[in-house]
Amino acid sequence: MRPLEDLRIVSLEQYGAGPFGSMHLAELGAEIIKIEDPTVGGDVGRSIPPWARDDDSLFFQSFNRDKASVTLDVRTTGGREVFHDLVRSADAVYSNLRGDVPAKLGIRYDDLKDVNPRIVCCSLTGFGMTGPRTQEPGYDYVLQALGGWMSLTGEPGGPPQKTGLSLVDYCGGYVAAISLLGAIHGARRDGVGTDCDLSLYDTAISLLTYPATWHLTAGYEPGRTRRSAHPSLVPFQAFEAADGWLVVGCAKEKFWQRLTVVLDRTDLADDPRFATFADRAEHRDELLPQLEALFRTRTVDEWLAPLYAASIPCAPIKDVAGALTDPHTLERDLVAETPHAAFGTVRTLRSAVRVGPPGADRAPTRPAPAMGADTDRVLRDLGYDDTRITALRDAGALGKD
Predict the structure, then answer these.
(1) pLDDT band for position 401 (50/70/90)?
(2) Contacts with 362 (C-beta within 8 Å, 6 or more apart), sequence order
(3) Taking the model in full, what pTM does it have?
(4) In the annotation, is 230 catalytic?
(5) Residue 128: CA atoms inside 13 Å, Cβ hemisphere, count?
(6) Which of 119, 178, 335, 340 suits a disulfide with 193, CB 3.0-4.6 Å?
(7) Which residues have a Cβ under 8 Å from the Cβ of 390 and sit 6 or more positions away?
(8) CB 41 within 8 A of CB 165
């Protein structure tokens, strides 16, 4: 058995952050019942181009593997009854909607505690349920701007830039998954559920980590660094070689000593201007041009061989194709293959979350579901017969065929 096979989570999720978080739980065995509103065509992720067809897309497949889909309009009387029956059978209600929507839909703990006193209501919103921005829509790009990230990304003197990936969304999904599991543990122990008020804003601010501590405590002014350099550890950055780029990181003094040997410049280790991290940071403008000129004299592979041999942290800067075909990616079984009627074999990335000994086989995975594919099955599991299901469908609670 997978560790979360005894969990049932009813999820009102959409787009990226929410589905990303619950997909990790699904891969660990949790039953994720994805509620899709039939009046708006379900999860908007189903229509994200360029590879979208028949109420599905490769974007949707990236975030919703191993889940069940139920079409349900919880704003209707019949839909609300079905929703409450699902809540009675569930451990958690999980959502990623605008901060004021959970109250409007009645999916907070106070709304559902009489239905199931142990229910956990986990809401991942853009800005949380309190504060002046509660009613604002929150998207990754917006949060990277507000959270200070774009001011730190890119070359000095250039325009603000977002990270290449939607990291606020994805980290928010992880935050929600951790919070949900903690709350379920507490509810099972104490017999009482709770709300989890999570936000992408909180996630973005919290991930400022040590630059924020330096700023708040010592007045440090964070800013962009040339060639993605570490703000205080020198050298730790991207270097241009004769045929490409690599990263070299001297995160400990011993790595700096070894690097001077690899570069055949042991005199740099003896130079008092470069003796310590603090010295090298103070004199970076004198040191880095020398290092950059040296790295341009050989190819990436010619540098990597001695750097690896010396156990100095380093890596070639790969493109996405190179990362996905790296032998380590394949050995770690990070690529899932699932059959799909429209797309043939869909290849997506498995969760980085693992439970089990090193090298253990991973559980089989299923493609993301067609919209409403599990509606009838889930309702029959709740005890609904065909007559009642048909009546609900005719009333619009489940959407029209």
Answers:
(1) low
(2) 333, 350, 354
(3) 0.93
(4) yes
(5) 12
(6) 119
(7) none
(8) no
> Peptide bond preceding 369: is omega within 30 degrees of 0, i.e. cis?
no
> 93 to each of 1, 88, 311, how far by Cα in Å?
23, 11, 47
Lowest mean pLDDT among 23-32, 183-192, 356-365: 356-365
3-state DSSP assignment of residue 339 = strand
pLDDT at residue 160, rounded to an integer = 95
Residue 149 near residue 140 (C-beta atoms within 8 A): no
153, two tokens? 């990304």
pLDDT above 70 covers a percentage of the chain that reads 100
Placement of tokens 């142990």 in the chain: 118
Three-point CA angle 233, 239, 241, nearest 5°: 155
The pLDDT value recorded for residue 99 is 85
Peptide bond into 19 cis (omega under 30): no
**Which residue out of 215, 230, 283, 340 is catalytically annotated?**
230
Q: Which two tokens stand for residue 48?
A: 């994200």
* Ramachandran area for residue 370 (φ above 0: left; ψ -120 to 50: alpha; else beta): beta
In this predicted structure, what is the pLDDT of residue 100? 87
